[in-house]
Structures are given as structure tokens and as C-alpha cells.
Amino acid sequence: MVHAFAPSLLAYVGAAFAEISGCFAFWAWLRLGKSPWWLLPGMLSLAVFAFLLTLVDVDFAGRAYAAYGGIYIAASLTWLWLVEGQVPERGDVIGVAVCLVGVCIILFGARGAA
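^ thats the sequence. predicted structure below, dont judge the formating
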């Protein structure tokens, strides 16, 4: 099962960084005074984000999106650290750990008959 999850994990991580990059382009334009030209790669990045989520190997979009939330949180704090130069605090790390446990429960938890 872990082997089958690897491509989905890569899609999730790629989607997270594509979404964060796309949103950051808007942040840079509106909050940092960057050129509106930042919006073009930002919108392309957001389209890549949406595409990558379709590559996740789950049966339902809602489950893919729910699990993605935890990956997004981890990626956001990685962005905070690597791009913005702010080291995540203890509470951030604990929060990410809790979210990633939730991701595992969503993706690998037992499924009952409906």
C-alpha cells in the first residue's frame, strides 16, 4: 500500500507548493507592491495545483481534498521557513503533526460499508 501511495504523496506535495506559489503571487502583488505581472505565473501555478489534485489515487474528490488539507498545512509552514525565513514555532510543529495524523486516518483508515 505504501508503494501505491508514493505517487499520490508526490501529487499532494506538488499541489501544495503550486497552490502556495500561486497564492503568494497575489500576496506579492497586493501586499508587497509587486507588478501585476506576478499574477500570470500565479494563475498558471493555481491551474497546476488543481490538475495535480486530480492525480491523487482516491475514489472521491472530497476525501482527496480533506487529506490534502493536512499536506497543505505542512507545506505552508515549510514555505514559511524556507521562503520567508521564519522558523516555525513549537506550536506550529505540533499542529502539523496532528494534521498529518489526520491525513493518515483519512487515507488509510478502515472503510465501512455504506
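Residues 2-108 form one domain.
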